[in-house]
User: Which sequence fits this backbone?
């Protein structure tokens, strides 16, 4: 762990809290660590300053919830994707201004955004079963995609860049994981996060899909989070699961599950370079922030949240996490030992 | 044999149990012994039919017929315009939106029911539950009122993959009970056993009939009449088996409806309606979305929308819609409030039903809800009013009685009335 400070999951403690009027659905930390963006059950993108917790809303571009968030690596711009299928680019700093770009990116929900590590490309995915690649030139998003990846047979729920920027991974409703080139061409079917999907014969519906995705820093493993061991799809009776797959062959390395099998869904997963997966979950068992030591199936430590967790963001310096909650709170937890 | 046959019947056509008889008398007493007119026979054989699409589990009115985009309760979906100027429905129903000029909406359903069993009984029977009298479902009432005496097929057919009510005929008897087609397959036990030739089968049935007739001259009972009817119906079904074979529809039509379960079921419904079946229910499961309401509605309504719209358009194109009343309903709606698991829970206070076709005012929108959808603000109605309206739409005087076994049974809840402005 060359750059990150030593964290202590058992010492995780809340250091800031902001209450929004609607339940939150997403959050992301800007690369410079100044802001947390969040989406909520309204049609806006919201910016929260870390110092002073001043909130500002970016409105007028989306007419559905904003679940997908991203940033240019230099922190000048941010990107939002909504359940209206739109992809928008905004100037992050200053008074919220009208968007620089509003693109009709997907037919149906746009579910995830991933900006390449070098900031030259942006990937999106959605309910049209497509993965799309967009070029960013001189900071500005191209108006049309440069690559359209086909091959998923169900809604594409998540997309993420490999840490070295050499390609992407996506995962759909049925847990199918695919690898894409940076140009958006299909490289291979990686494997399937089997534990995260089932077809409920009683309800006649699919339940599952990737609700969170992250690579380990060395790119050797891919973690896909969702709900597993579902016994009643429409009541959400199942528990948060994370399938950690070997990237080389797609085989399951570890299925992360809560020790106490609380009900819920994993809505956020992040790799901490101290050798740990950090997960946020929410459901019938309440909201939880959990820490899993790499290679171990059950958590090392869990923090009970006051409401269902719906999104997770690790700060750029890896010392804090932001969690978006169903009760409208955006909470920030320090992972460092408490000052004496 | 129909799944819901009442073995305590007195005749195949007019079956009456002691309990139903006493209940009917009690109901008559409760309504002041005012004798209503008996149902006229004129509707029978008129070719009027009802298609009921039952969205089992409780479809969300906010994700279908009464969207509230941009509000705290509205969820993530937008509203889209329809073929009726000024009328918007959820973006999840783009194909249905193009058929709305043939259909009408009731946006002001309200009742006390938040329970699946109770809600289903209420919407199927049109009576508040628990009811003092076991009453027949809409399908049985429509079959009894509209089917001609010599119609060779069941008049009340339920197509389903999962869930749905039993098609209760109550005092109307097994002839009007729902015959269930599991997964659009012909009713169970209607194929001739392998190795039994048609001639051998005919002789076997003849022998059984002779024994039966001889027995009936001395010891005719409700039970034997019911069994006789069931044998007769089974033989009729055997002869009509091709009616139940959806694969005989063209490949193009199978593609248009979709080869998934609900698509096949809608095509089967069209086939049955074309053959004159009085009441066809297609059950689409499931909408009980306490969790992930939005993802599940994308999936379920994505399956519902195109086959349903295709069916409505086909009925219109074939001249059947003017004689076929179409209804889309659930046992209740779903909570405007979105829960912490992105779900919506049971909600009977303000929800919607769609009607169209025979006797229904095209493009009508009845009632309204508040801006956040939590309460009815105009023209509150319930299952009882809808029951009357459907019957009136197909020409049945819902204020009349069935006269059965010497007793009068109110066809619909006498405390409720049809929604007149919904009727053409």
Assistant:
């Amino acid at each position: 762990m060359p750059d990150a400070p030593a964290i202590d999951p058992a010492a995780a403690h809340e250091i800031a809290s902001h209450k929004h009027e609607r339940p939150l659905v997403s959050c992301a930390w800007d690369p410079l660590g100044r802001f947390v963006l969040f989406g909520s059950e309204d049609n806006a993108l919201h910016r929260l300053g870390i110092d002073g917790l001043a909130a500002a809303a970016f409105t007028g571009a989306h007419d559905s919830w904003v679940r997908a968030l991203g940033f240019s690596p230099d922190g000048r711009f941010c990107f939002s994707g909504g359940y209206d299928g739109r992809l928008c680019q905004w100037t992050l700093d200053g008074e919220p201004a009208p968007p620089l770009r509003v693109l009709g990116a997907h037919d149906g929900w746009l579910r995830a955004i991933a900006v390449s590590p070098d900031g030259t490309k942006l990937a999106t995915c959605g309910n049209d079963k497509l993965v799309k690649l967009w070029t960013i030139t001189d900071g500005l998003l191209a108006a049309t995609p440069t690559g359209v990846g086909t091959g998923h047979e169900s809604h594409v729920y998540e997309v993420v860049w490999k840490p070295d920027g050499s390609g992407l991974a996506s995962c759909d409703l049925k847990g199918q994981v695919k690898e894409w080139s940076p140009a958006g061409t299909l490289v291979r079917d990686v494997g399937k996060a089997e534990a995260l999907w089932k077809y409920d014969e009683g309800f006649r519906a699919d339940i599952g899909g990737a609700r969170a995705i992250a690579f380990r820093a060395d790119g050797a493993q891919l973690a896909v989070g969702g709900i597993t061991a579902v016994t009643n799809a429409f009541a959400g009776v199942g528990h948060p699961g994370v399938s950690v797959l070997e990237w080389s062959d797609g085989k399951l390395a570890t299925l992360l599950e809560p020790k106490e099998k609380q009900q819920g869904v994993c809505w956020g997963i992040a790799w901490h370079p101290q050798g740990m997966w950090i997960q946020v979950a929410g459901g019938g068992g309440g909201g939880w922030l959990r820490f899993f030591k790499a290679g171990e199936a059950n958590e090392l430590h869990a923090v009970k949240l006051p409401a269902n967790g719906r999104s997770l963001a690790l700060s750029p310096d890896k010392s804090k996490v932001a969690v978006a909650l169903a009760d409208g709170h955006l909470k920030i937890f320090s992972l460092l030992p408490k000052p004496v | 044999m129909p799944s819901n046959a009442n073995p305590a019947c007195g005749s195949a056509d007019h079956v009456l149990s002691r309990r139903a008889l006493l209940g009917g008398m009690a109901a008559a007493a409760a309504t002041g012994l005012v004798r209503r007119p008996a149902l006229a026979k004129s509707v029978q054989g008129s070719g009027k039919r009802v298609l009921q699409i039952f969205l089992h589990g409780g479809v969300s009115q906010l994700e279908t017929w009464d969207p509230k985009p941009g509000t705290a309760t509205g969820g993530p979906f937008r509203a889209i315009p329809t073929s009726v100027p000024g009328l918007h429905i959820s973006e999840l129903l783009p194909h249905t939106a193009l058929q709305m000029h043939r259909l009408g909406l009731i946006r002001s359903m309200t009742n006390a029911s938040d329970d699946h069993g109770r809600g289903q009984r209420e919407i199927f029977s049109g009576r508040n539950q628990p009811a003092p009298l076991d009453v027949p479902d809409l399908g049985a009432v429509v079959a009894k009122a509209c089917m001609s005496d010599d119609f060779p097929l069941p008049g009340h057919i339920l197509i389903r993959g999962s869930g749905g009510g039993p098609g209760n005929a109550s005092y109307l008897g097994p002839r009007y009970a729902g015959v269930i087609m599991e997964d659009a397959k012909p009713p169970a036990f209607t194929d001739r056993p392998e190795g039994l030739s048609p001639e051998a089968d005919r002789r076997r049935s003849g022998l059984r009939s002779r024994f039966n007739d001889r027995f009936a001259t001395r010891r005719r009972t409700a039970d034997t009449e019911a069994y006789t009817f069931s044998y007769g119906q089974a033989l009729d079904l055997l002869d009509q088996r091709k009616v139940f074979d959806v694969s005989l529809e063209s490949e193009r039509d199978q593609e248009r409806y979709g080869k998934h379960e609900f698509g096949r079921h809608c095509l089967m419904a069209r086939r049955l309606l074309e053959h004159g079946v009085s009441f066809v229910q297609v059950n689409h499961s499931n909408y009980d979305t306490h969790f992930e309401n939005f993802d599940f509605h994308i999936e379920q309504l994505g399956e519902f929308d195109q086959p349903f719209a295709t069916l409505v358009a086909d009925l219109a194109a074939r001249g059947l819609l003017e004689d076929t009343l179409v209804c889309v309903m659930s046992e209740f709606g779903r909570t405007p409030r979105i829960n912490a698991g992105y779900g919506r829970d049971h909600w009977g206070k303000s929800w919607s039903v769609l009607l169209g076709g025979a006797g229904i005012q095209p493009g009508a929108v009845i009632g309204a809800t508040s801006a956040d959808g939590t309460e009815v603000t105009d023209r509150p109605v319930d299952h009882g009013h809808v029951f009357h309206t459907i019957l009136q739409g197909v020409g049945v005087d819902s204020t009349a009685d069935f006269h059965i076994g010497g007793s009068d049974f109110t066809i619909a809840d006498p405390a409720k009335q049809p929604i007149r402005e919904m009727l053409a």
In short: Chain B has a mean pLDDT of 87. The radius of gyration of chain B is 22 Å.
